[in-house]
Design a protein that fits this description.
Layout: H1 2-16, H2 23-41, H3 48-54, H4 62-75, E1 85-86, E2 92-93, H5 97-124, H6 127-139, H7 141-144, H8 154-174, H9 180-194, H10 200-217, H11 222-242, H12 253-272, H13 278-304, H14 312-321, H15 326-332, H16 343-350, H17 353-378, H18 390-408, H19 413-424, H20 430-437, H21 442-465, H22 474-486, E3 493-495, H23 497-507, H24 520-529, H25 538-547, E4 552-556, H26 557-561, H27 570-577, H28 587-593, E5 599-604, E6 608-613
Parallel strand pairs: 3-4
Antiparallel strand pairs: 1-2, 4-6, 5-6
């Protein structure tokens, strides 16, 4: 009776969001992020223009929220702005949209820390597990997120909803009878995760790929698994509608895997009638799911005409198969899309995160392996008593998937590091380590572990707190002020994608390309625009820019020579893409010397040259 009461208490506290890291913890996490960002940018005292210039990438739905918020505050006469005079060429007043934007991001990521606490507590069965998850996250903060340095990223909005989704999924797997509201919450969190970020679908595909083997082996009840799959299908359809019929949602590996899973669920009894052994029964289902998903993905891509869109799966395939073209190199040449740094595992080891997770993973896999052998030997669906909780097996499989992704693409540490922190909570699991707690006091294990972790953890935190800087980009500020004062409101601009984002945001001038590089039409336009950094003739590039109705081209000298790693300068990328012109001189160097007769220099400073297209 006492044991059941403890479980009910934990479940109640998880559902209510109680514990040491409730609202106060979320607030502290938000303040921590705000301090790091303020120390790095001195954001509160930047001009409105400078704040806009720090936002060089994605914007979202927050514009609607901002207008609603300001409108409501104005109705009640509540002051929402604190203004300073910032001296530049002329006094500028600091506005609020950028502060609102950053503030919402930090609030969302602050709330995420409460979700991590609940997540760790739910998975481990104790509040101490939630505490370990949160502390591990902070001790490895630099490996877990970029939100404190670059808030306006789609991942900053999207990832917190994945944490919520996986926490809900853990509850569904853990509870023998899950109410309908859990499945509805799973569907809605899926939608919130997928809408802001183009890579979200592939992450959910890895989730289905982790759940499906568990269903095949018999770890997940068929009815429960059906409900999970149905909720995922509904979330795909909702995203398809909310994104105005974007067929990418229907042609992904994620949607294809859902359909194949549904087919195999329906045909499971037919496969079983073949009379094959237990092992062959598993292999047939897994092989059919794997091959069927790939075939269905390519068929839907062809039928819907979206085979020319770039996805995370394309980047991973290019990384593994050593396939390169212009589009994949634009991505993979960026440092964040390179292989995981060799120093990353070392940093994990110093905080004890990696050794701890490896020990936990070993015990889970050991017990699971014994259980699978037991089933194969007895040829029965009855699970052996040594089996760990089913949700632990799922999280281990998900950990392996996140590890592979992070090794191939460094940016995807975003998924690996937090998941390792959640897995670390299992050191408190009595199901896994009850044998240890019979010999050593549970509290002593937790306290000793946190003490050793905190040695390097606090060093990491102090290193982040000590970062001091101030945003300053006078050349771009001069460029934007010139565009505002010296060009027509309908003048069309082209240039590097990050710069175009700033031009559009701060000047409202029409642009032909921007950082949403996943769109096929946009990639085609960007390839034409980046022809300035190739070896093509000035006339050929000019003629293609005129076809895009470009009036002004913003040339950046750094792009002519910058080389992030071997094979990754713009010239090297173009020589691979356009070998017929490889013997010609670089067009960029020619334009820097004399842009005439096809272009005219109308503005110039230390970083930018604005070329008027003749």
């Amino acid at each position: 009776m006492a044991k059941g009461g403890a479980k009910d208490t934990l479940r109640s506290s998880v559902e209510k969001g109680e514990g040491p890291l409730g609202a106060a913890g979320s607030r502290k996490a938000r303040i921590h992020l705000s301090i790091l960002f303020e120390n790095d940018r001195h954001f509160s005292h930047l001009s409105s223009l400078e704040r806009e210039m720090t936002f060089r990438t994605e914007m979202v739905i927050l514009a609607f929220w901002y207008r609603t918020f300001v409108g409501i505050m104005n109705v009640f006469g509540i002051e929402t702005k604190t203004c300073w005079n910032v001296t530049r060429v002329q006094p500028l007043r600091v506005g609020d949209p950028a502060c609102f934007y950053v503030g919402v991001i930090f609030i969302l990521n602050g709330v995420m820390m409460s979700m991590f606490f609940i997540y760790g507590a739910c998975l481990s069965g104790t509040h101490f597990g939630g505490l370990i998850t949160v502390l591990c996250y902070f001790f490895n903060h630099g490996e877990a997120t970029r939100v404190m340095w670059t808030p306006p990223l789609r991942e900053s909005f999207s990832y917190p909803f994945l944490v919520l989704q996986m926490c809900i999924l853990t509850l569904i797997l853990r509870l023998s009878h899950s109410s309908g509201r859990y499945y509805i919450a799973l569907c809605l969190s899926n939608v919130a995760f997928m809408l802001p970020w183009q890579f979200a679908q592939f992450i959910l595909f890895t989730q289905i790929a982790s759940l499906f083997p568990m269903y095949v082996v018999g770890y997940i009840e068929p009815n429960k698994f059906k409900k999970i799959i149905y909720m995922n299908m509904i979330s795909v359809l909702l995203c398809f509608v909310l994104m105005f019929g974007n067929s990418l949602y229907l042609s992904s590996y994620y949607s294809s895997s859902l359909l194949m899973t549904w087919v195999i669920i329906l045909k499971r009894n037919n496969i079983q009638r073949l009379g094959v052994s237990e092992l062959n029964f598993w292999l047939i289902q897994c092989f059919g799911w794997f091959c069927g998903t790939i075939i269905l993905k390519f068929l839907t891509s062809k039928i819907l005409g979206v085979s020319d869109h770039i996805r995370l799966s394309d980047l991973i395939a290019a990384r593994i198969l050593r396939f390169t073209d212009f589009d994949t190199l634009i991505y993979t040449c960026a440092p964040e899309f390179g292989f995981m740094e060799k120093a990353t595992p070392v940093r994990y080891i110093r905080t004890l995160l990696l050794p701890l997770v490896m020990v936990i993973t070993y015990f889970i896999l050991k017990k699971t392996f014994r259980d699978v052998l037991c089933v194969l030997c007895t040829n029965t669906y009855q699970r052996c008593r040594a089996t760990p909780a089913y949700q632990l097996i799922f999280h281990t499989l998900q950990l392996l998937a996140f590890t592979a992704l992070a090794i191939l693409i460094m940016r995807l540490k975003l998924f690996l590091t937090p998941h390792m922190c959640v897995m670390a909570s299992l050191i408190c699991s009595r199901r896994l380590f009850g044998w240890l707690f019979y010999r050593v006091r549970f509290e002593n294990v937790v306290f000793g572990l946190l003490t050793v972790m905190s040695i390097q953890g606090f060093v990491n935190l102090r290193g982040q707190w000590s970062i001091l800087g101030e945003f300053n980009n006078l050349p771009q500020e001069e460029l934007i002020e010139w565009i505002k004062s010296s060009t027509r409101a309908d003048a069309v601009f082209a240039g590097a994608m990050p710069t175009m984002a700033s031009v559009k945001l701060s000047t409202l001038r029409p642009i032909v390309n921007h950082p949403h590089y996943e769109d096929a039409d946009l990639r085609a336009r960007t390839k034409i625009v980046y022809g300035v950094y190739s070896r093509k003739s000035a006339k050929e590039v000019r003629d293609k820019l005129l076809q895009l109705h470009v009036n002004y081209y913003i040339l950046e000298e750094a792009w002519c020579v910058v080389r992030t790693k071997p094979g990754c300068s713009m010239l090297e990328i173009w020589d691979l893409e356009d070998p017929s012109n490889a013997a010609n001189p670089p067009l960029c160097s020619t334009l820097l010397q004399d842009a005439r007769p096809y272009f005219t220099v109308v503005f110039q400073n230390s970083m930018y040259r604005v070329l008027k297209v003749a």
